[in-house]
Amino acid sequence: MTPILLKNRYQVIRVLGSGGFGETFLAEDTQMPSGCRCVIKQLKPVANNPQVYQLVQERFQREAAILEELGGNSNQIPRLNAYFTEDGQFYLVQEYIEGQTLTQKLQQQGILSESSVKEILINILPVLEYVHSKRIVHRDIKPDNIIIRYTDGKPILIDFGAVKETMGTVVTASGNSSRSIVIGTPGFMPSEQTAGRPVFASDLYSLGLTAIYLLTGKIPQELPTDPATGEIVWRHFALSLSPSFAAVLDKAIQSHGRDRFSSAREMLEALQTGVTPIAPTIPPFAATQISAPPSGGYVQPATVVSSGAIPYQQPVYYQQPAPVSKGMSDWQKAVITGGVIGACVLIGLTVINRKETSNQPQPQQTVAEQNSSPAPENSSPAPTSSVSENSRTSQQPISDPQPPIATAQTSAITKKAAFALINQWQQSKAQLFAPPFNRQLGSELTTGEAYRKNIGQGSSLEWLEDNNAYYRYGVQRIDSIENFVANGDQATLDIVLTEDRKLYKNGEIVNDENSSFDTRLVRYSLQLENGKLKISDYTTVRVINNR
């Protein structure tokens, strides 16, 4: 490449990497006597217009100052030496760390021992605690962003998401600025970060999966999930681990942030002591109780700022000890006694009333009423319970305009079984839509329209075979269950899922709508068929995020 001199000072030696935000170079500082080396990041805004440029420039300066503070107070974060703009591009000049990333270390040495991984975690968690104390969420912790420094063997945390988010700034038609991308790496991101709401525990999730990668050699996309809970299953890939260390990692990668460690300090103490705290049980409504705190108590939430300077509220709850029972007071005894007497009186009156009613002559049913049949039930499940005919009394005419009493539907289909089926369907796609095109597996999971779309004549599978094509899947994650309704032998399940799929034809990727990496809300229709639950149809309700 042609030698490049930036800012009339930094001589570029070689390109270290490139991506959607720009390029990273290894350079030499020609104005230093030692000619020391440094890393220069060239950053490019995603949108190129004057309004965006001015906004990005202001944020770039502010967040460069944040990076300077972080590196200046921790020797495990690269120092920021300078920042500047040249020819409309933004540049960061950072300390060059001589070492190897955790990815490179694994590729060179193979999977790491428990003691080695534990040492890395014990040395990186204080750095993460410091970053969080500055109200910053790193958001892109992964094996490529932790370097083991040659000089002392310490892990160095690099590549913060703050400046990346600035480069992803766009301006809407109304003139408001917004982020156009979600910072992070697929697989290493928890669901709340994918939705653009990272918290401190999001970094702990990513760090836990990084540790599991070092112990198993498997990236998150290669790890199965429990069909009943949606949690990542990994322990059988590392059978020699101590139970206490495995428990720490299990807690770090829980799908819900409230079930993970509350802080980097707590995770560090669990590693050092071998005691993993049990996640507190917080009622679902607690997070929304601001003016009226739950019975356990409420502490004013602390405002936290992610690396993109987006504030969020992280409420902290405590539990008050339950009061010791000292027996019932006199008034409580009186109330209970009165209630028992009242119930007996009501039962007696009810028995007398039934006897009187049974002695009265019953009205004769007309021929028209005898021959009429009830209205057919709606075969498709609905989000509300249907009306039971038994809720009408014999004294009421059929044309009674008063609203009927709703009763709960009974169904053999459970939410757990429905979730397990969809999870199995997602996991089976790699075998179904790529050679050897496992039709048997598809027929076990689908019926009706879903079978026709995927397996039957004129289906996706038939097209793939005829056109020498197949799908390859990356991330396949169920993020949340939005709604579940069961009615007899049918049910519907609304699920938010993230999927990375690529269509290949004649060995080459096809870049069209069939190749996509997105998060979407999908509605599945389910059917019990000969005692086995299957997918009868599905439709995308909406695309939430398209990467």
Automatic annotation (TrEMBL):
State if ATP-binding is listed as a keyword: yes
What GO molecular function annotations does the UniProt record carry, in alphabetical order?
ATP binding; protein serine/threonine kinase activity
Residues the record lists as binding ATP = K41
Q: Provide this UniProt record's keywords sorted from A to Z.
A: ATP-binding, Kinase, Nucleotide-binding, Serine/threonine-protein kinase, Transferase
**What ranges does the record list as Polar residues composition bias?**
358-370
Q: What class of enzyme is it?
A: transferase
Domain Protein kinase, residue spans: 10-282
Q: Which Pfam families match?
A: ARC6-like_IMS, Pkinase
Q: Which SUPFAM superfamilies match?
A: Protein kinase-like (PK-like) (SSF56112)
Compositional bias (Low complexity) at which positions?
A: 371-386
Enzyme nomenclature, EC number? 2.7.11.1
Q: Where is this region: Disordered?
A: 357-405
Catalytic reaction list: L-threonyl-[protein] + ATP = O-phospho-L-threonyl-[protein] + ADP + H(+); L-seryl-[protein] + ATP = O-phospho-L-seryl-[protein] + ADP + H(+)
Q: Which PANTHER family match?
A: SERINE/THREONINE PROTEIN KINASE, SERINE_THREONINE KINASE LIKE DOMAIN CONTAINING 1
Query: Which named protein is this?
Result: non-specific serine/threonine protein kinase
- Organism of derivation: Hassallia byssoidea VB512170
